[in-house]
Amino acid sequence: MPFYAVARGVRPGIYKTWDSCKKNVLGYKGAVYKKFNSSQQAQEFILANRSRRYQPKDDESSDSDIETPSVLPMGPFVVDEPTVLPPVVVGLARHAMSQLRFRLDERFLGIPKAFMRTETKHPPTQMKRVYVDGASRGNGRKGTPISGYGVFYGAGDARNAAVPLCDVEDAAVTKPTNQRAELLAMKHALTDIANEIHGDSEDAQLQSIRYQIYSDSRYAANCITEWCGKWIANGWKNGQGNAVANKDIIETTYPILNYINEYYSNQNWGRLEFFHVAGHSGDYGNEMADKLANEGADLMQKCTIHR
Predict the structure, then answer these.
(1) Is the pLDDT confidence value at 110 over 70?
(2) What are the strands of the beta sheet with 13-15, ordered from one edge?
(3) Do the first three CATH levels of 1-51 and 53-306 match, i.e. the same topology?
């Protein structure tokens, strides 16, 4: 089976047919693409030839302390007619989290067929930053860490959320960590955005807002924008051959991001952008998300497991 790798094009990724590949390279100035006999070769070609401002390492190390904010572009691993798919997206439990209410089309990793036929293109009415952050206290100590996450849209915004991790997962089964809190915060924000796109919001104007995600966790952003495609192709093993940590969150967040990116592409907005901001650096949005995350952690004190 052939694999067409598009390192630079309309939608970088790996395609299984020339027809789907050529739509993303023909007429695109500076397109870089090549045919391979294996998906691994195709992935290596993309990694070696794509253009980007930030190049992360494929590992699961702790977050970087680099202070200069930089765009974290989504990885190009979008395979048409994929053979390995994440399960249907399930929204986060019950607390302050609306569920994705549309039926997923597995062929497009979460993009409904009706949506794929949408041709309407509109400029965004405004750009909107969403800040996400996680908090976890007591890591490395005996007992369950007190953890929560925060999502900050702006002062007085009803969508702002402070969520204890025990509200979205069983802390007795899955031990809370800061990385899980960061990932769940990102999933929460992405689900909100996807629901607005799909029309679950009462305000139709929200569908014309182009969002940007700001986080102080490079790990969380890289998991869904850079590494997830490789992990799927590698049977959810990381570069060291070990099982990928936090797979349960990552594999259900990835198709939500793909859904958003498909909508943004149809609107000529490019892809959803992720920006890194240094934590505790005085950035107002990050400080507010951190405050909400700690409020969420405080709420975890009230969870049954801690009573």
Answers:
(1) no
(2) 13-15, 3-8, 32-36
(3) no
Q: What is the Cα–Cα distance from 50 to 56, expressed in whole angstroms?
A: 13
Confidence of residue 242 (pLDDT cuts 50, 70, 90): very high
Which amino acid would we find at residue 211?
A: Y
Tell me the C-alpha distance between 297 and 147, whole Å.
4
One-letter amino acid for residue 141 of the chain: R
Q: Which of 202-206, 211-215, 237-241, 279-283 has the lowest mean pLDDT?
A: 202-206
Give the domain ranges of the chain: 1-51, 53-306
**pTM for the complete prediction?**
0.62
CB 187, CB 180: distance < 8 Å: no
Using CB atoms within 10 Å of the CB of residue 224, give its burial: 0 to 12 exposed, 13 to 18 middle, 19+ buried. Answer: buried
Topology annotation, domain 1-51: Ribonuclease HI; Chain A (3.40.970)
* Domain 53-306, CATH class in plain words: alpha beta
Is the CB of residue 145 less than 8 Å from the CB of residue 177?
yes
